[in-house]
Amino acid sequence: MKIIHVVGARPNFVKIAPIIEAIRRHNRSAHRPIEGLLVHTGQHYDEKMSKLFFDDLEIPKPDINLEVGSASHAEQTAEIMKRFENICLDHRPTHILVVGDVNSTIACALVASKLNIKIIHVEAGLRSFDRSMPEEINRILTDAISDYLFVTEKSGEDNLLKEGIPGEKIFFVGNVMIDTLLKHKEKAERSKILDHLGLRHLTADGPVIKDYGVLTLHRPSNVDERETFQNILEALLDVSERLPVFFPVHPRTRAKIAEFDFGRHFAPTSGIDPSRGMRLIDPLGYLDFLSLMSRAKIVLTDSGGMQEETTALGIPCVTLRENTERPVTVTHGTNVIAGVEKKRIVQCALSALNLSGPGSYGPAPSLPPLWDGKAAERL
Ligand code: UD1
Questions:
Q1: Are 7 and 101 spatial neighbours (Cβ–Cβ below 8 Å)?
Q2: Active site residue: 5, 44, 95, 218, which one?
Q3: Ligand 1 pocket, residue 134 CB under 6 Å
Q4: Among candidates 357, 209, 372, 218, which has minimal Cα distance to 291?
Q5: Residue 340: CB partners within 8 Å, gap ≥ 6?
Q6: How far apart are CA 145 and CA 311, in angstroms?
Q7: What angle do CA 70, 133, 84 make, to 5 degrees?
Q8: Residue whose CA is closest, atom 9 of ligand 1?
Q9: Beta strands 317-319 and 298-301: pairing type?
Q10: What does pLDDT average to in each consecutive run of 10 residues of the chain (379 residues)?
Q11: Which of these, 280, 329, 281, lies nearest to 306 by C-alpha position?
């Protein structure tokens, strides 16, 4: 086998790390090693959105970077396709492996399918049933042309079968993102981010960590329109009256905050009153972010991956969307789907905060099946 592994955007890096490691382990004792090439499309390119993750997760430097950068969906997808086709023609892989649901995922899968290269899709079968989400289109189309579909939760398998994908192509292996989390949890505890943000203080009885929340927000449907974004911000400002909320801000969201002149809503990072307010900070690397998330009282987010990570950590998660493609985080985990209406967000956040008294959450009530740190090995 000769596999081209494709990554493009931040969540992809977290998923590819354990897969590359598992293949390396396999190759050490394998009769016939699996050849591999790592291709970064360059969909994400800022140091804090890309390189920091390669460093933290010890992912080998990409063999090839297509350097496509940002553009409209059509332009970005087309540019990745054009450049990736040349790579496939030059290197003649037997398989390509794509992860998740970003534009790089569908673009490279489509190229491979036309060249009769086998496609492996990791994190297949997730469905929000909301076709206004660009990721939902990417998921459905990638799955339709994939040859090996690896799913993270049972719903993935059910969805694929309903779409007519033959059962023998589907493999329920668990969640590679959780492999990465479990592997790095201890290392993340050595991160200094809590000290840098003034959240940890040394007392005579040892270190004390203040109560705080973590927020991320970057979905186009939440931040691209002034009214929706304002509505969500107002709810979050209400929540941040109870405890400070730290907001590592995605470049798309930062641009929108500037465009809508929303900067006035945020407190300075080292604020006058450190016990409340919403604080914008730069995007964090994997270890710092894991450290921040794993000690939070509450996480508010529109990210898909963080719904899973909070479930594994047992941290209450309030999802700022009307749906989730990861239902196991609600049935087994700590996730509540709050939607984007102000009143409901505040209600969900307050009840999550009440629940998160000492000891009431702790480790996840029950970890979803096969979220055990061994998904990449099985895959
Ligand atoms: C992409 C994925 C989304 C994923 C998210 C994780 C698609 C359709 N969306 O969304 O599923 O949840 O990544 O972060 O693939 N930008 C920078 N620096 C960067 C990258 C982006 O400044 O390194 C800015 C650019 O202005 C760009 C905007 O962010 O136009 C959006 O980036 P893009 O990759 O198009 O989509 P994301 O919103 O990041």
A1: no
A2: 218
A3: yes
A4: 209
A5: 222, 228, 231, 232, 320, 321, 322
A6: 30
A7: 40
A8: 102
A9: parallel
A10: 98 98 96 96 98 98 98 98 98 98 98 98 98 97 98 98 98 98 98 95 91 97 97 96 96 97 82 79 97 97 98 96 97 95 96 65 70 98
A11: 329
Cβ count near 62 (within 10 Å): 18
- Copy the structure tokens of residue 77: 């997808």
CB of 218 closer than 6 angstroms to any ligand 1 atom: yes
Q: Smallest Cα–Cα separation from 298: which of 341, 253, 355?
A: 355
For ligand 1, atom 22, name the residue with the nearest CA: 251
Three-class DSSP category at 150: strand
CB of 45 shorter than 6 A to ligand 1: yes
Instruction: Find out whether 43 and 68 touch, Cβ atoms under 8 Å.
Output: yes
Answer for the pair 213, 298: CB distance below 8 angstroms, yes or no.
yes
The reply to whether ligand 1 has any atom less than 6 angstroms from the CB of 369 is: no
Q: Which amino acid is at 170?
A: I
Model confidence, pTM? 0.95
Amino acid at 369: P
Dist. CA 44 → ligand 1 center (Å): 6
Instruction: Give pairs for 365-369: CB < 8 Å, separation 24+.
Output: 365/314, 365/332, 365/333, 365/334, 366/332, 367/311, 367/312, 367/332, 368/153, 368/175, 368/311, 368/328, 368/329, 368/332, 368/333, 369/153, 369/154, 369/174
The verdict on whether 184 is a catalytic residue reads no
